[in-house]
Amino acid sequence: MNWDELSRSSHEEVIAWAETQPWARAMAACSQDAQWHAEGDVWTHTKMVCYQLTRLDEWESLDDDDRRALLLTALFHDAAKPLTTILDPETGHVRSPNHAVKGEHLVRGVLRDLECPLDERECVCSLVRYHGRPAFVLEREDTAKEVVRLSWLSENRLLYLFALADTRGRDTASMSRPEDNLHCYRLLAEDNDCFDTRYPFATDHARLEYFRQAEPNLHYVPHDEFSCTVTMMCGLPGSGKDTWLAKHRPDLPVVSLDEIRTEMKVDPTDDQGRVIQAATERCRQHLRADTSFAFNATNILRQTRSRWNGLFSDYNARTELIYVEPPMRVLLKQNRDRARSVPESVIHKLAAKVEPPTWLEGHRIMTVSDSG
């Protein structure tokens, strides 16, 4: 099944397709702790959640995109449990630590292979990643920050609806997350004006500073006169980052890791210390001169981007992150056409690790599904 076929399929047809997939068969073979899931294996729970979605009071009023996003979230929210399930030797309970994080990567790979549109795919990925947060919102020290943050990382309305179905889609005798917690989550989001929309920060800089501060003030509006703008390109090798820059930021000087490697005759598999050091100094030269520039590298990992963003922030730069990802078949062709192509096996390994930028990372975030 490809994406066009899946998007036209009924609720039941999508579930039937999923049941034939290896990740679903793995869930069917994965047991759960009876304290939380007396209904049995992971796939049994998954099908119960899919059924409960259609019983939500709001289901009939949802559009096709929201229904599809919720159904895919249901199918994948616990899909990484077979990869993470362990028996806790201290408690004797079965646990699946970090299954939501790994689930995000798993569903991204499956939907990428189906050629799901980038925005729809990342909506589902974020719902899978944060699906467990609403039930535990009252355990957060700052509940307002939690719902505001989730409004920019995902969609509170869809998280709430999915959490209802997830809670109901299990043996009620073992339900450990009462729905009262979920209703509190909804009220908190509504009280903070971010249940069915992102929290309305006064400026992009106010948003970014709020998420950067350990003890943020939701109503503080910082001064936002910047020294320059840094355009950080993000994407797999062959995605079209150079092409996008040439078309949309033709006058910007560019600090490119690929170009520095070529100058220094450093292979991508060699130690990158000298390359990073040179790139850092070239960035600093532009920043000291208050000159806007582009920083061009793969930048597919959040941790990598945070180090560069820290440098740019130190010089009071405005940051825009441009994430480029065409369909994989297009990307692989573009890579083959490059003067220095990257082995396709390397690209697939990198694709499995991709973490597209979020609104917690830059003043502006743009996702591009082609290089045009």
Secondary-structure blueprint:
Layout: H1 3-8, H2 11-19, H3 22-28, H4 42-54, H5 64-76, H6 81-84, E1 86-87, E2 94-95, H7 99-113, H8 118-130, H9 143-153, H10 156-168, H11 179-191, H12 204-212, E3 228-234, H13 241-248, E4 254-256, H14 257-264, H15 273-288, E5 293-296, H16 302-314, E6 317-324, H17 328-336, H18 344-351, E7 364-368
Parallel strand pairs: 3-5, 3-6, 4-5, 6-7
Antiparallel strand pairs: 1-2
Helix pairs in contact: 4-5, 4-10, 5-8, 5-10, 7-8, 10-11, 14-15
Pfam family, one: AAA_33
GO molecular function, one term: nucleotide binding
Keywords: Nucleotide-binding
Written account of the structure:
By secondary structure, this protein is an alpha/beta fold. The chain has two domains: 3-191, Hypothetical protein af1432 (Orthogonal Bundle); 228-368, Rossmann fold (3-Layer(aba) Sandwich), CATH 3.40.50.300. 51% of the residues lie in helices and 8% in strands. It is built from 18 helices and seven strands. It has helices spanning 3-8, 11-19, 22-28, 42-54, 64-76, 81-84, 99-113, 118-130, 143-153, 156-168, 179-191, 204-212, 241-248, 257-264, 273-288, 302-314, 328-336, 344-351; strands spanning 86-87, 94-95, 228-234, 254-256, 293-296, 317-324, 364-368. The strands form two sheets. A five-stranded parallel beta sheet has the order 4-5-3-6-7, with helices on both faces. A hairpin with a 6-residue loop joins strand 1 (86-87) and strand 2 (94-95). Helix 4 (42-54) packs across helix 10, helix 10 packs antiparallel against helix 11 and helix 14 (257-264) packs across helix 15. It is globular and about 65 Å long. The two termini are 28 Å apart. The model has no long low-confidence stretch (mean pLDDT 94). It holds the Pfam family AAA_33. Residues 42-136 form the HD domain.
